[in-house]
Structures are given as C-alpha cells and as structure tokens.
Amino acid sequence: MQVNLVNYEMAFTNGILSKFAWKMNEELERLGIKSVVTDVPDPKYDINHHIIYIGYKHVDSINTLMVTHLNTESKMDLLKEGMKTADMGICMSQQMVDELIKEGLPQDKLTYVLPAVDEHVVPIPIAILTNVYPDGVKRESMLTELAKTIDPKRFIFRIMGKNWDVDGLRALGLNIEYHAEFDRDVQDQILMNSKYYLYFALDQGSMALLDAMNAGLETIAPLDGYHNHSGVDHPFTTQDQLNAIFATLQKQKLADWTWEKYTKDHLAIWEKLVEKKQS
After folding, report:
1. What's the first-to-final CA gap in the chain, in angstroms?
2. Residue in 172, 123, 129, 167 with CA at minimum distance from that of residue 147
3. Are residues 178 and 159 in contact, defined by beta-carbon separation less than 8 angstroms?
4. Residues 157-206: pLDDT tens digits?
5. pLDDT digits 0-9 by tens, 88-115
6. 218-221 and 196-198: which strand pairing?
7. Facing residues of 88 across strands?
8. What is the pLDDT averaged over residues 211-233?
9. Cα distance between residue 54 and residue 66, in whole Å
10. Which are the contacts of 31, defined by CB distance < 8 A and separation ≥ 6?
C-alpha cells in the first residue's frame, strides 16, 4: 500500500493539520508503509487521505476525508459535496458520525477514529509538610520504598521539614524540592502549587493536612485520629496500599490515545477499502 497524505495546510507547517499529516507519515513509515505528505492528491497512490475535507479534490484512487470542526452550513455543504465521490469520511467521534447520518450522509461511508495526543510528562506536585525524627515515628521510610515502585519523572515532591534524607531520596531518582525550616509563606506557596498532600504517620493526624484540604488539595494519608472526621481522598495504612495509590496517579488518562494507534486505526480502514475495491 502507498499512501499520500494530502495536507491542504502545507504552507503552514506548524498548524495542527500539518501536525496530523507529519505524525501519521512518521508512523506509517515506521510500519513499513510507503507514505508521503504533499499538498495535492495524486492517483498513483493507493490511498489519498485528505487533511481535511475542505479543499478536497477527487482523484482516481481511494479517497478518504478527515472530518473535523464541521461547525457552519458552508462547511457542511462542502462535506456533502465531497462525500459524493469520497470513499470514506473519517470523523473524530461517534457523535459526529451520528450527526452526519442525520444530515443524510450515507452511513456506510462514515466512521471515526479517536484523535491522538502527544505524551506530555508534566510532574505531578506532591506536598509533604512535616519534620521527621530518628525514631521513625513519621514513617518517612515509606517514601523511600515508594520511590522504588514509581516512575520518578511523573512526580515532584515539595518537602518542608527538618531531618529529611534528601540526598538519599534524590539518589533514588526522586525530584525533590526541599525546605528544611518552617516558613509560613513557603508553606502557602507549596500548597498553592501542589495537587496532592502526602502524610505517612499514624500519630492522630496532621494539621498541615487540614491546611491542604482547605487549600483545595487532594489528600493521601492514613485515616487516623481526626483524619477520620476530616476525611481523606486517598486513604492508606500499608506500603502496598500507598504504592497502589501512586501506581494509579502516575497513569496518564489517555495513555492509549497514541499516534501509533491513531495511524493503525486509519490503516485498518484503508485496508478494508482496498480489499473492497479489489473484490
């Protein structure tokens, strides 16, 4: 199969449509498919995928249209005209497919592929506001054990409190922002710039946890003492429970919305169209 990704936005190489064209081209080449990005359709290619339907020019090959941002009557008219000769309109959601069917477009020439997103590793900020002591009463060793199970790139730990083994934690790969001395202004900045508050100890409760709750942070802590009354968003007692919480937090919500999957889904559509044409 040979694919021509017809990018009608070719002159604007930083545009979002150009991004779709070049990302798909990269993935197709990785899959061993001959692929080019041009600004004109070409009948010598098995597939001409038009990005997008605006500007579509039919050629004697299999023509598929990227369908998105269909938000005016004039655009709808363009799509309806294009679908008279196109082999498939590829939308970005089932909702769009359903709406186009209501508009009278043929159901057998409509499908959808969910969009792809880039992998953005933005560290999740975790606030820890407590001193630690030689007897280990604050159970800070749980952070050391946690560090062995998480992807350190996914978190930044903002710690304020005395006696933390910051060098040891950093040696495990953790991203640590450390303030040894208590400072109310620094605490407020930490709370303003964090998403979660983490507390380990079983010592009847953390006053800083209450501050964190009032500041809008989600809390990760044992249900102990007055935490039973305030409530905790992500309660734990054991190391395994804590590890499980962070395993969930570090998962990206759209981890499977990749450019590889997006391209493979298109490839599956094209293969069916080629098979249909040859039968």
Report:
1. 16
2. 172
3. yes
4. 999 999 999 999 999 999 999 999 999 999 999 999 999 999 999 999 99
5. 999 999 999 999 999 999 999 999 999 9
6. parallel
7. 64
8. 95
9. 9
10. 263, 264, 267
The DSSP call for residue 150 is S
Where does 9-164 have alpha helices with state H? 16-30, 73-82, 94-102, 141-147
Report the amino acid identity of residue 81. Answer: E
Q: If pLDDT is split at 50, 70 and 90, which confidence band does 53 have?
A: very high
Q: What mean pLDDT do residues 270-279 have?
A: 94
The predicted pLDDT at position 12 comes to 60
Domains in the chain (CATH in brackets) are 2-117+256-278 (3.40.50.2000), 124-249 (3.40.50.2000)
What burial letters (b/e) apply to 104-115, b meaning 16+ CB within 10 Å? ebeeeebbbbee
Q: In the chain, what's the furthest Cα-to-Cα distance? A: 78
**Pairing relation of β-strands 47-51 and 88-91?**
unpaired
Strands ordered across the beta sheet of 218-221: 176-179, 155-160, 124-129, 196-198, 218-221, 234-235
pLDDT value of residue 36: 96
Taking alpha carbons only, the member of 212, 216, 196, 215 closest to residue 154 is 196
Q: Is the full-model pTM beyond 0.85?
A: no
